[in-house]
Amino acid sequence: MFAGPDNGIYQVINPSSETAISISPAYRGATATGAAYGVVPVNGYPKALADAVNLMVQQWGSTLAGLGPLSSAAIAPVANGGTGASTIVGARAALQLKTGALADVVGVVASGAILESGTNANGSYTKFADGTLICTNTILVTATIAPGASISPSITPAHAFVGSPLVSTALVFYTAGQGAQIYASKQFYGLSGSFINTGVSASASFPSFTALGNNTAYSYEFRFSAIGRWKS
């Protein structure tokens, strides 16, 4: 480094001879002869690094200044868009997140998931972390049911309920080969209800309350849904 007579500090960019050097920036003082000056050696001065840092400051200086306290913060506060903590637990507390923030949406409820679903021979079920349970099933049964005869299907849910669930059922009778539907009359009895074959084809007018049709059912489709609790 060159310390000039004007007390300015300059970079020596080219010692062209024993009596002449080139400096940067250009000398800012008045021309002088026999004036005192100094040359200060700087061991290992990384000019390329200094140039790179200078370029970075020119390109990003205003951006870094705009970061305000974040430019020197070890942990970004919530007010500046950060988590306010260096750990997951601390971040959850700072962001006021509840336990659902770490829970799987779908999985095994007993392991902390919000909801769980499954299918088995008895149909499908969906259970929720709050204890709600929904079970559904559709069963196609081959059976001969004469006009006026009834059927009371049994219900076995895909998952056990605690207490009595709210059950909704529906049943459709079919002619041979499921060629056409036959009106069923539901009697609210027991959990599933009892369904009477009216003998009247669904393509005809509505069945009479006093007279049966003549269509024998050879199969029926029973559907149910049940809503209740899997835990008390």
Describe it.
- The protein has three domains: 2-66, no CATH class; 75-100, no CATH class; 109-229, no CATH class.
- The protein has helices at 47-66, 88-94; strands spanning 2-3, 9-14, 22-24, 38-39, 115-120, 123-128, 132-145, 150-151, 166-174, 181-187, 194-201, 217-229.
- The chain has an eight-stranded antiparallel β-sheet, with no helix packed on it.
- The protein is built from two helices and twelve strands; from the N terminus they run E-E-E-E-H-H-E-E-E-E-E-E-E-E.
- By secondary structure, the protein is mostly beta strands.
- Enumerate the strands of the largest sheet in spatial order, edge to edge or round the barrel: 5-6-7-12-9-10-11-8
Helix content: 10-25%
Which H/E pattern describes the elements?
Answer: EEEEHHEEEEEEEE
Number of strands: 12
Q: Uncertain spans, ≥5 residues at pLDDT below 50?
A: none
Q: Cα-atom Rg, whole angstroms?
A: 43 Å
Strand content: 25-35%
Q: Can you give the mean pLDDT?
A: 86
End-to-end span in angstroms?
83 Å
- Count of spatially separate domains: 3
Which structural class do the helices and strands define? Answer: mainly beta
Tally of DSSP helical segments: 2
User: What does the largest sheet look like?
Assistant: 8 strands, antiparallel
- Outline, from the CA principal axes? rod-shaped
